[in-house]
Description:
The chain is α+β, with helices and mostly antiparallel strands. The protein has helices at 7-16, 27-44, 66-69, 84-90, 93-103, 247-252, and strands at residues 18-21, 74-77, 107-118, 125-128, 142-147, 158-160, 195-197, 204-208, 213-215, 224-233, 267-270. Strands 1, 2, 3, 5, 8, 10 and 11 form a seven-stranded antiparallel beta sheet that branches. Strands 4-9-6-7 form a four-stranded antiparallel beta sheet, with no helix packed on it. It is globular, with a radius of gyration of 17 Å.
Amino acid sequence: MKHKLSETQISSYRNNGFLIIDDFLSQPEVEHWKTTIDEAVKARKGRKFPHSEIKTGASDGINKDAEYFGKVFDQIINLWMTDDGVKEIMFDKNLGKMAAELADVDGIRIWHDQSLVKQPWGNPTAWHLDTPFWSFSHREALSVWVALEDVTLQNGCLYFMQGSQKDTDFIEPGIGANMGDIFSDYPNYAKKDPTPSIIKAGSCSFHNGLTIHAAGVNMTPYTRKAMTCAYMPDGSVFNGKQNVLPDDYFKSLKIGDLLNNEAQNPLIYHKDLE
């Protein structure tokens, strides 16, 4: 894993709201990740969450249009909770350290991982933000997105609006079928050119949860597989939203409570523990 970040990379991330790292994984690591994640996804039998019987593509209270989003990608969340192999991958402290360095925070917790498989002829993902959906509000929350297959303009690569994390906020604009709905809230970005993330299998991108981003349509008869993980800075507090939290845990929380439950949001890196 190409886990050591340069000051130039860190500065680029903080200025632009995203960072693309070519050849992040070696070829054997790519094969290990892909095999492990494929097996973990198969074992979940379409269940989107470990704590629920909701199937991927079904209405989950997050996406506005379940029928449309069922054809955007297959999304399986928190595989680390149900598969030891994925847990080993996701708990890699080098990944956690990278996230902490990019976010300029002392510690990083997993918010949730997710396997994303854009099926052949899959719908695009509209422009959106991540953090406003989550159960905490932190400007430095971020995600890693690792390509398990080559990602091209044709099969639905990610696009980023450079520097948009400096202008967005925690208002939840939602995400629906219309590609440009978010520009009602952020009209200046409707006139800007996005940056496509065209990357080979084993390469990755990190992006701030407040960076405006999207993904294109899959105009091929092949899948586009990726593994992602959303990271929460240690010390984040509950904002009242359920998002991926199980019912029992969600009901036990009050706004302002520290989100430090190791069974739900494990601490994978802290500089004081090195």
